[in-house]
Amino acid sequence: MFENVEQYFIDLLNRSDDQKLSYSIVSFLALTSDIVLPVPSSIVMYTNGFVLGGIQGASLSLLSVMIGSLFGYYLGRFTSLGFKSKNDQNADDILKKYGPVAILVSRGIPILSESICIVCGYNKMNLKSYFLLNFIGYVPVCLLYAYCGSIGYDKNSFLISFASSLLIVALFLFVGKKYLKSV
């Protein structure tokens, strides 16, 4: 039953070679809108690698999620204008203490990464630090998904890439905890 559906999508993706620009625009829009819409970003990043190849797929994914994270930051910043209360100081203190680690660790975790983008803007985290931490956190995730997508039809490659992204998150968490202890 699912073989026909799977074959349909494989054929559709194989035909996308003729329409890489159109595919890239749709992928870009999907990943940048992930900040406010429920987009399965890991699947889109994986498909970017499948359709565009490892380097181009990772580059498109990285550009898209970075722009989306800036959109989320400014969305949070805009919503904080005049609405912050004194209780928000606790959230700001937590963000100052754990914000860098939270950004690094959450880049591969759906929903949480988008939420943290908005919280960072809301609490007016330094934009340069925010951007750099997002970049460092997203690079391995984008490369991993695009690479696994580029190796093609191996049925286990998505699971491997997803498991690897969780390992990257665990690595960032481990390094982050060590960093926080030394501060």
Order of helices and strands: HHHHHHHH
Secondary-structure content class: mainly alpha
For the CA atoms, what is the radius of gyration? Answer: 18 Å
Number of strands: 0
Largest sheet: none
For the record, the count of structural domains works out to: 1
**Given the structure, what is the number of helices?**
8
Our measurement of the CA-to-CA distance between the termini, rounded to an integer number of angstroms, reads 56 Å
* Strand residues, percent: under 5%
Shape: globular
Uncertain stretches:
none
Considering DSSP H and I runs of 4 or more, what fraction of the residues is helical?
Answer: over 70%
Look at the structure and give the mean pLDDT. 82
Detail the topology: elements first, then pairings:
Blueprint: H1 2-15, H2 20-32, H3 41-52, H4 54-79, H5 88-106, H6 112-122, H7 127-150, H8 157-182
Describe the structure.
The protein has 183 residues and is an all-alpha fold. It has one domain (2-182). Helix content is 79%, strand content 0%. The chain contains eight helices and no strands. It has helices at 2-15, 20-32, 41-52, 54-79, 88-106, 112-122, 127-150, 157-182. The longest helix has 26 residues, at 54-79. It is globular. 37% of the residues are buried. The mean pLDDT is 82.
Quick structural summary:
With about 180 residues, this protein is mostly helical. It has helices at about 1-15, 20-30, 40-50, 55-80, 90-105, 110-120, 125-150, 155-180. The protein has eight helices and no strands.
Q: Which key terms come to mind for this protein?
A:
183 residues; mainly alpha
